[in-house]
Amino acid sequence: MNQLKTMMLLAALTALFMALGYTLGGSGGAVIALIVAAGMNLITFWNADRIVLAMHNAREVDMASAPEFVGIVRQLAARAGLPNPKVYIIDSPHPNAFATGRDPDHAAVAATTGLLGILSRDEIAGVMAHELGHVRNRDTLIMTMVATIAGAISMLANFGLFFRSGDGRSAGIAGLLAVFVAPFAAMIVQMAISRTREYGADRAGAEISGNPRALASALAKLARGAAVVPSDVATRIPAAAQLYIVPGLAGGDNMFSTHPDTGNRIAALEEIAIEMGAPAAMPAVARRTGSASVPSTRSGSRASSRASSQGRVSALSPLAPPSDRR
Question: Nearest CA to 203 among 253, 273, 251, 254?
């Protein structure tokens, strides 16, 4: 269902672009705008991982520097049938994580020290499984396609201020409306696709980790923690909020949000847990989003520093295989 919804939204975005070009009557300008936008997004696509990781000052870790964290990621990658991604840690008290890379062979996952400091081992595994779900679902590719079309719409709309129709007259009221309405509509569709992909990654993460309730618990803690300790990067670059597992921004499940409401995601994960054979008992964390205890900024920083310096995460019990949780 999520795949179908994504394709329908992509089709709507493409139709919006074509309608804008038709309304403005500048077919030549439409082609130029599309080529330029596609070129810009192609460069971003091939270098997205380096750009994003540098933006967060992420440092790569391995089995020598962060054996437990890297071990979790590798174990989950094997379950998902994926190549081992590069693993990064971001020294920040803001609790969050993301995946990047153009395809599974060039993927990277990253988590902040804030996240490693407040989650249990099973919760960390749930979060990393979610990120690997994005990799397996090729969400980076899909969102790049979306960005290409949305970027073309925005550029064409800007050019539209100077376009004239084929008979030499200005585009008129219809053209002006298209110039201002089209980018706004493209933004709404882009955010809708982003929200759809999050639900898909949640389901994939539950299947990979075999523990949807651990992911649900992690989402509640992260949503609470991200609201208390905002991301410096997202504050400077709001578009970065779409990268994370939780946005850390106010707002519910509406057309202007980059992520579904955390409570709705937890409820969906509870349904998945029941599908997988878990008892139909809603955990307290799922009933009351964000109720989990989250350290203050200062204590979160201390926990983050410990996680950073030791390169380890809490809880030492090995991950149970998915079959043990069904």
Answer: 273
- Summarize pLDDT for 275-322 with one digit per residue, the tens: 998 887 544 544 444 434 333 333 444 444 444 433 334 333 445 444
Instruction: Yes or no: say if 148 and 154 are a contact pair by the CB < 8 Å rule.
Output: no
Can you tell me the distance from the alpha carbon of 278 to that of 123, in angstroms, rounded to the nearest whole number? 17
59 beta partners? 89
Active-site annotation, residues? 131
- pLDDT tens column, 87-116: 999 999 999 999 988 889 999 999 999 999
* Choice between 260 and 37, residue whose per-residue pLDDT is larger: 260
- Count CB atoms within 10 A of the CB of residue 280: 8
How many angstroms separate the CA atoms of 223 and 258, rounded?
13
Strands 86-90 and 97-100: unpaired
252 and 198 in contact (C-beta within 8 Å)? no
For 164-222, write each residue's pLDDT tens digit.
Answer: 444 444 455 555 655 666 666 666 666 667 777 899 999 999 999 999 999 999 999 99
pTM, rounded to two decimals: 0.72
SS3 112: strand
For residues 263 and 251, give the distance between their C-alpha atoms in angstroms, rounded to a whole number: 12
Residues making up the chain, counted from first to last: 326
* Euclidean distance between CA atoms 180 and 174, whole angstroms: 10
Beta bridge partners of 108: 86, 100
